[in-house]
């Protein structure tokens, strides 16, 4: 089967046959989609897959001397192209990285992307944007960063170009006064929010680097300047991007072209035949851990990420998700699991402050298309609700509606949300 898929993928990207042959090939691909869970690549035009990498010095491939770069050897662009070639995909990746740039600097050269006619654009900004000046303020205010980044995304989508948004890698140390993870984190959450809202793929480098450093030693993934990734760091980025291009359920593969869209819809209409694993062999995985989410409203003092940070019994208000008095019910939270997962249950933890009462949980493969997992009520603060699905189901998004609260003035809160499936 693996050899068959390699042949199909290579044919899709390089075929110069007639239209009828392409139609037969698309039909074959759709048929295989119904019977196998293998990676599916888009049926693009008769040319190599063209990717434009738009970003700052990390995208450029900055090396320690400043006059050299990892451009032609070990950058994520080179590594990604190599990984794609290994499965028969001829990819051309344009280096659109400029050292030192912010989204505001990059705005003047954005239109040049369209001249390249790319199939996909990779975007990564944030490290320079969040860098603090002598007054302690970031080079680009957070609101401006969000507005400009979302403008880039929407303009590309309007032209039918696939977009993959990336967060900046974390900083291995906070010893650089003007550039710390405290400065960077709001920009990370902004990028995650934009990806979810616009239904595009996200390579969350901030999370991937932290996951790779189980011993918390991030420095081994960076050059001595403690800002730019070394070859090992670029491998992490390349692997994250390759997973998007390889995954048949990614937004890039599902949404970009009509043929892909039709195949995805046919696949969506099929029922999952996956059998649940036996309890003794089952390894439960919390797919919501550290995942990004958006919310209908929140209090200005509520920190980002607290709903998926693993803290189920928070000690104070800075460790819970909570909203202000304003806002109508139901208030909601939507978690993006990153890609489609087979899920079995959703667990919602109440907090002891501003506690919520009635909760409804939904799951779906796409934004706005949900199935109910169930409704229930918290009996008291600091308790939890468990929503077990009737059968394991595929989902990428989890939506939690908060319908009312025990407290007054519409103030509600939650401590944590977990989404369990099996590995």
Shape: globular
The fold-level CATH name of the largest domain is Rossmann fold
Q: Identify low-pLDDT runs.
A: 1-45, 257-281
How much of the residues is beta strand, in percent? 15-25%
Give the H and E element order.
Answer: HHEHHEHHEHHEHEHHHHEEEEEEEEE
The CATH top-level class label of the largest domain: Alpha Beta
Characterize the largest beta sheet: strand count, sense, and whether it forms a barrel: 7 strands, antiparallel
Taking the alpha carbons of the first and last residues, their distance comes to 22 Å
Question: In DSSP terms, counting alpha (H) and pi (I) runs of 4 or more, how many helices?
Answer: 13
Number of domains: 2
Per CATH, the architecture of the largest domain is 3-Layer(aba) Sandwich
* Coarse structural class: alpha/beta
Radius of gyration: 22 Å
- Helix coverage percent: 25-40%
Provide structural commentary.
- The chain is of the alpha/beta class.
- The chain has two domains: 215 residues, Rossmann fold; 139 residues, Sandwich (Jelly Rolls).
- It is built from 13 helices and 14 strands.
- Strands 6, 7, 9, 10, 11, 12 and 14 form a seven-stranded antiparallel beta sheet that branches. The chain has a five-stranded parallel beta sheet with strand order 2-1-3-4-5, sandwiched between helices. The protein has a two-stranded antiparallel sheet with strand order 8-13.
- α4 packs across α11.
- The radius of gyration is 22 Å and the shape is globular.
- The two termini are 22 Å apart.
- The N terminus is likely disordered.
